[in-house]
Amino acid sequence: MDLNKNNLILFLVFLISTFGISQTKQIIIVDELTNEPIEGVHLLYGNLEEGSYTNADGVANIILREEVLTISHLNYQDLTIPPKEIELLSTVVLKPDDVQLDEVVVNSFNLKKALQYVLDNYYDLYVNYPTEKECSFKETLLVDNKIHRLILSDLKIWTKDAGFNNRKLEKNIKLKLGTVSQNKNVPMAFDINDKGESNPESSGNIITKSLLLNTYLDAAIAGFLKYSGMIEETVEVSSPDVIIVSFTTDWKNVNAIANRTKGKFVFDKKTKAVIEFIKEIELRNDIKKKTSSFSNKEYQYETKSQVISYNFTKKIDKKYSLSKLGIEANVVLSLDDKNYNTNFKNNLFVLKETKKRRFGNNGIVDLEQPIYKMIPSNVINSNAIVLTAKEKEFLESED
């Protein structure tokens, strides 16, 4: 390529600027008192509505931007980092938040009334316009605390707004599968036949229609308000900016299966919006017997609990939007007189969100189909959400 001096300078400037746009920084977040890593810390460029989350090792990648970076976690004091200091960061220490018990709130708080307020004012609190979310999605399967499946993918999700409103899901939300950075699955014993062959369908799916339905907070709150049994509520010690209310329902029997729900709602004191919600359904005697169509082996599994968690972030226009979603199931699998404790996790991390009126139909995933059937054969070893040491060890193993 023949370049004169001026063109060469311009070309080098282009390379430098291009590199600068994509340059990332790895940051470790630890607790000031224990020096232990903190999972689920949100690193956010508020003006760009772009950020990331720390993993279980307290590690996150962040793209270097000429913007102020906010580091936040519900249980810790926020940190604001000027642009010139971001590149110098390596380990960041967070101070536990000052907590207090507001006696006035304890004596007067009504959980159902507070949740009904959220529904009645939903679009004053949460986004009421179409957006595109650039996400990382991670699915893991652990058997007796050993990883058997790890799928990590980029996703783009378009939503009409933050509310479900009992509309058809396909009218509300669209999904496109991007780069699959990791995809490894070690088959379960019941899906291996006598010849040692494994079921090609056993890699599971990255995301499902039911999971997408669970992204809607208004639907989750409406379901909670329909509960007619006894609910024990407790206002917890919290920071001056939020109200944390934990709850436990009574046990209920349906078709010989007992269940109860427990969890917590976190309300922003100023806006009264729900900014975090965790719900765990505990189950007893939820046992199903199956025969693998591939290996013809009989097995059974008992679901012990299901957990769903929501985190919301305030946008520039002061409306809240989903920033993280987690769904988890804990199951005891029984095969050949042995029990295996299995844990399924699906985590969706919103890395960037922008207003977008139209999404286009090119590359849209059929929500009725499992996405594992559409995973490309080639994967790229890069990811926005940093893998933990345990996950890296699994990928490098020969299992």
Give your account of this protein's structure.
The protein is 17% helix and 43% strand. By secondary structure, it is α+β, with helices and mostly antiparallel strands. It has 2 domains: 5-94, Immunoglobulin-like (Sandwich), CATH 2.60.40.1120; 103-396, no CATH class. The strands form 3 sheets. Strands 8, 9, 10, 11, 12, 13, 14, 15, 16, 17, 18 and 19 form a 12-stranded antiparallel beta sheet that branches. It has a 4-stranded antiparallel beta sheet with strand order 3-2-5-6. Helix 4 (111-120) crosses helix 8 (217-225).
Which terms would index this structure?
2 domains; 19 strands; 17% helix; Immunoglobulin-like; twelve-stranded antiparallel sheet; four-stranded antiparallel sheet
> What is the average of the pLDDT values?
86
Envelope shape: globular
Total number of beta strands = 19
Which range best describes the helical content: under 10%, 10-25%, 25-40%, 40-55%, 55-70% or over 70%? 10-25%
Rg, Cα atoms, Å: 23 Å
Order of SSEs, N→C?
A: HEEEEEEHEHHHEEHEHHEEEEEEEEEH
Number of helices: 9
What is the CA–CA distance across the termini? 47 Å
Strand share of the residues?
A: 35-45%
Number of domains: 2
The major pleated sheet works out as:
12 strands, antiparallel
Overall SS class: alpha+beta
Detail the poorly predicted runs. 8-21
Provide a short characterization of the protein structure.
With about 400 residues, the chain is α+β, with helices and mostly antiparallel strands. The chain is about 15% helix and about 45% strand. The protein has 2 domains: about 90 residues, Sandwich (Immunoglobulin-like); about 290 residues, no CATH class.
